[in-house]
Amino acid sequence: MGKSVKAAALRFLKIRPRSVYELKEKLEGKGFSSTEIETAVLDLMASGLLDDRAFTKSWITYRLARPFGFRRIIQELKNKGIDPQIIEQAVAEHEGVYSAEDTALELAQRRWQRLPALDPLKKKKRVMDFLLRRGFDVGIVMKVIKKLK
User: Fold this and answer.
1) Is-above-0.90 flag for pTM?
2) What does each C-alpha distance from 39 to 5, 28, 44, 147 come to in angstroms?
3) For residue range 9-52, what is the model confidence (pLDDT) as tens digits?
4) pLDDT tens for residues 73-95?
5) Closest by alpha carbon to 26, among 50, 59, 58, 53?
6) Calpha distance 22→136 (Å, rounded)
7) Residues 32, 34, 36, 39, Cα dihedral to 10°
């Protein structure tokens, strides 16, 4: 394994944590061969510097703090090449401590207050669209919209 591949991989990981898929894509973009990349990735995984499970847990924690809904977070993780089983396990761990409905209601109320004096139906539509873009489930969004006044 060339030192330059591992050095590049460590630079990418220093910027922010990455999934195995993301790191491979970045290294391919730099022109490294697939065998060099595979060797570097396996070495980083063996040393614990590259771990999709840890990445997934930290990503979910980070995105829930923003706050986003699980639908959006799951899609982001899929785009980052995370195994669906890893995503499912990590989401299940976080669902017990995170109330999507309470978070969506808080976001909706803040958004409702910031919107100008519009027709209440238009305001509800805008808040609903906002929550859906944030990745909250339709059922939760509908419950929250009914609570807005």
Assistant:
1) no
2) 9, 13, 9, 55
3) 999 999 999 999 999 999 999 999 999 999 999 999 999 999 99
4) 999 999 999 999 999 999 998 88
5) 50
6) 25
7) 140
